[in-house]
Each structure stands twice: as C-alpha cells, then as structure tokens.
Amino acid sequence: MKKKLGIYIHIPFCVRKCAYCDFLSAPAGEETRQRYVERLLEEIRGAGNLSSTHRTATVFLGGGTPSLLTGAQMDSILETVDQVFGIPAEAEVTAESNPGTLTEEKLRAYRQAGINRLSMGLQSADNRELQALGRIHTWEQFQENYELVRKTGFSNVNIDLMSALPGQTREGWLSTLKKVTALEPEHISAYSLIIEEGTPFYEKYRVDGPCEKELPGEELDRIMYEDTKAYLHKKGYERYEISNYAKAGYECRHNLSYWERTDYKGFGIGAASLVDGVRYQNATVLESYLKGTFRYESVEPLNEQEILEETMFLGLRKMEGVRLTDRIRSNYGDVIRELTEERLLEQRGERICLTDRGIDVSNYALAKFLLD
Ligand code: SF4
C-alpha cells in the first residue's frame, strides 16, 4: 500500500515585512513571483518518482503570503501537483492568506483551483496592535475579507491569532477572542509573540531593550494563555495541539502529519521534507532558485534514536499524545516515571500524553525525551 504524503509549497513573498517576522519571506514584484512559480512547477515535476510509493493526503501552500498569487498561478501549481502526484477528492488543500490581499474574483479562482481550506493571518482584532505589528490590514478589512471567504464557499477556515503583544491588556486579548469566535471559524491557531533576533521588534523589545517594559510580563502572558484555553473551550473549540484549536472534525490534517511524522515533501525555498526516514532541507537563496540552480541545503538520514526522539517530542505536542510501544517503554521508562511523578505526564489507556501542567512547561517536559 502507498504511504500517505503531505505536500508543502512555500511562497516566500509578502506585501511588506511585518516588524516581528523572521520567516523566509520578503516583498517581490510580479515578474519575480511569476518566475518563482515557474521554477516551482519544475521542482514539482522533478519529484514525480515519489508518486509510485506515496499518495497525496494533504497539500498546504504556506508562506509568506500565498494569497499574493493570482488565481491562474495557484491553478497552475495545483494542476501540476495533480498531474504529478494526483490530488484525491478527499484531500485537504490549504492556502495561507493575509487580509488585504483577497478579492472575490481571486477567492473564486482559488476554489476553482481546488483549495478547500483557507487560513487567514489576522493576529489581532485591535487596529493599534495590528499597526504596531506592521500588518497591512485593519480589523475592518479583515471582516470584509472574511465575508468574501464565506460568500465564495469556503467552509473550512482557520484564523491565526497572537497574544502577548506590546501594550496588550488582558481585556484587549479577550476582546480579540470574543470578536473572532463570533465569526465562527472552524479552526483557531493562537500563539504567543516571540521576539526573534534580526527583526525590528528585537531592537525594541529584546531583554533589556529600550521598550521591553511595553511587553506583557510573564504573569500576564500566562493569564492570557489560560484565558485562551478557557474561552475557546467555552465556545466549542477543542484544543488538539499546544497552540491549535478546532471544532470537531476540523483539525488541520496537514499539520497533524508533522506531529505524527508521516511523510511530507516540501517545494520552494527553505522547504523541509521527510521522506522514507530522510530529512531534506531546501536551500534558502531566492536568486539561485530563480536561476534554476536548485539544491538541498542538507540531506540527513535519521537513525533509530533520532526517529524515536522525534516521535516523542513531536507526538506529545498533541493532546492525545503518543501510543505507548515496547520501544518507548524500554527507552523512556525512567523519563516517563519521573514526569508522571511530577504530574506532567499521564497514561490514558494505551497512550501517554502531557497533563495540563505538563503542557504549561512543555519545553522542559519535551526536552527530557532527548536521549543524549
Ligand atoms: S505576512 Fe506573515 S510571513 Fe509575511 S512578513 Fe508578515 S508575518 Fe511574516
């Protein structure tokens, strides 16, 4: 039987760079975007041999801002994926999008091209917070885009949110949660802001930076995190991964494949793959990619120990945890005992999973599963 395959396609373009963002993305003109799409099609065609051993389960266009692509560009990518790998009717096909880049015509074309799940990068429902983040949209523009998304027939929608923003209060965050859940998206991702080196935010908000005090402190960050869990639960969203919440049956199948370590193949600059126990990392330089001199930055066959470690620290991110096997018992017996005594881990039937307390200190708990 063929193995399941998740297909990831990286679109590294944005209207402009947000002040906190260290993703592989940058503004680029139309001509660059078109050349990039052409190279993508070549890269996808070059991977056709995988289709003899794998079948497509999910496709995910991430970025950057994939919704900068025209309907025709999106169509050519998905058409090529379909020709090379096949996209079954039941496959989940997601595109990330940013408010301010969507039109009714584009959304109709995306639907036509086969996208059946749309992820929208909102981050906050407060215009001052959006402005501070350097986002291109307002809450009102998001609402208009969201209406178009529903009008054009998207019935599986994710909204990305971010807490612990500069100047954000507990009430402000609760107000964002309230406004967003009133729209009833099927899925919500809620992360805390991380101050990444090399970004304008790092200059201002790093530890001992000039504006560090404007960030909510650790205690308020923790309160917002607890509010997120409680509020979304009350509104009918089940947390299925540390930062991801969904209505029943709307968990993101593509992201689950990362945590469950089923095979995935990435296309475009910086994209990662895991195929038959080997990790591949695409090179990140746009200019070389556009010239057609595509290469991997690394190819790393994983040994048994690395596979086991990944199974644990990725699988335990999910609320349902991992299935307890003899190998896990023999390699991690002591760790499991220790974390269970600390009430950070618990056994539920044949599975082990982090407790609420364990999730709160997940960095500490998951690091225990690194064997060296
Ligand atoms: S839209 Fe997303 S990927 Fe683009 S710069 Fe902003 S945060 Fe980064």
UniProtKB/TrEMBL annotation:
Domain Radical SAM core: 1-235
Main location: cytoplasm
Taxonomic superkingdom: Bacteria
Any Gene Ontology CC annotation: cytoplasm
Record localization: Cytoplasm
Gene3D superfamilies: Aldolase class I (3.20.20.70)
Cross-referenced InterPro entries: Aldolase_TIM, Coproporphyrinogen-III_oxidase, Elp3/MiaA/NifB-like_rSAM, HemN_C, HemW-like, rSAM, rSAM_sf
Any one GO molecular-function label of the UniProt entry: 4 iron, 4 sulfur cluster binding
Pfam families in the cross-refs: HemN_C (PF06969), Radical_SAM (PF04055)
A GO BP entry: porphyrin-containing compound biosynthetic process
Family: Belongs to the anaerobic coproporphyrinogen-III oxidase family. HemW subfamily.
Role, per record: Probably acts as a heme chaperone, transferring heme to an unknown acceptor. Binds one molecule of heme per monomer, possibly covalently. Binds 1 [4Fe-4S] cluster. The cluster is coordinated with 3 cysteines and an exchangeable S-adenosyl-L-methionine.
Protein name, UniProt field: Heme chaperone HemW
Species this protein is from: Anaerosacchariphilus hominis
GN (gene name): hemW
